[in-house]
Amino acid sequence: MGTTRTCAASPFIPTVFMLLPAASIKRVRVWDWRKKIELHRFREHSAEVNCVAFSPDGRWLASGSWDRSVQVWRVDTKKYHRALEGHTEFVRDLAFTPDSKTLYSRGKDGVIRVWDIQAGHLRKTLGGHQHVVRSLALSPDGKRLVSASRDGTLHLWNFDTGKIEATMEEGSLGFQIVALSPDGKTLATGGIDRNITLWDVARILEMQKAK
């Protein structure tokens, strides 16, 4: 199978399908991990694939690349859907909203782009960071986004307004990765210090209002 850079399991058939982009051959490969056979290959990128994501309903497959684009396919038909373009640097991560209608992409350009996955148009741009966005996390209801950047900041965004609700700062090594609990009430962050910190989201918002 060769070298892989990242992988994602399909939520539609979580025990069967695994997606694996080969790291340097510009293609995305879909595998049946139980039978250890390749099911399909998607070729649209002109540079190395960095990240992949399945939509929660299992209908869509998206990949981001060093070519600065996001490519989208229909999983059920195995047909190419469209390219989402706009990032000025490589695409680093992807995240679907729970309803599978919206895709977030982040890149080295420090900008988070919000896409209508069906129509392919850019819904909004979130540009609150000054450096590469390292990690994204979505609340279960899709109404709040958490982003962590190399500039040392962590932002909590309101999806409807596109505005920052709260900001925390930990220095350039503090926020490497973020994740939200299934109920959206607890935020977990990890840093270079190898520690995981748990935060009460409601408390963060209260502290922001008190400033």
Structure, described:
The protein is mainly beta and 211 residues long. The chain folds into two domains: 1-127, Methylamine Dehydrogenase, Chain H (7 Propeller), CATH 2.130.10.10; 132-211, Thrombin, subunit H, CATH 2.40.10. The chain is 5% helix and 49% strand. It contains one helix and 19 strands. The longest helix is centred in the last third of the chain and has 10 residues, at 201-210.
Reported by name, the CATH topology of the largest domain is: Methylamine Dehydrogenase, Chain H
Instruction: Profile the largest sheet.
Output: 4 strands, antiparallel
- What pattern of helices and strands is seen along the backbone? EEEEEEEEEEEEEEEEEEEH
Rg to the nearest angstrom?
17 Å
Reading off the top of the CATH hierarchy, the class of the largest domain is best stated as: Mainly Beta
Q: Report the structural category.
A: mainly beta
Instruction: Going across the biggest sheet, name each strand in turn.
Output: 1-2-3-4
Low-confidence stretches: 1-7, 12-23
DSSP strand count: 19
* Percentage of residues assigned to helices: under 10%
The average pLDDT value, as a whole number, equals 80
How many domains comprise the coordinates? 2
CA distance, first residue to last residue: 53 Å
> Strand percentage, roughly?
over 45%
Net shape: globular
Q: Please count the helical segments.
A: 1
Q: Give the name of the CATH architecture of the largest domain.
A: 7 Propeller
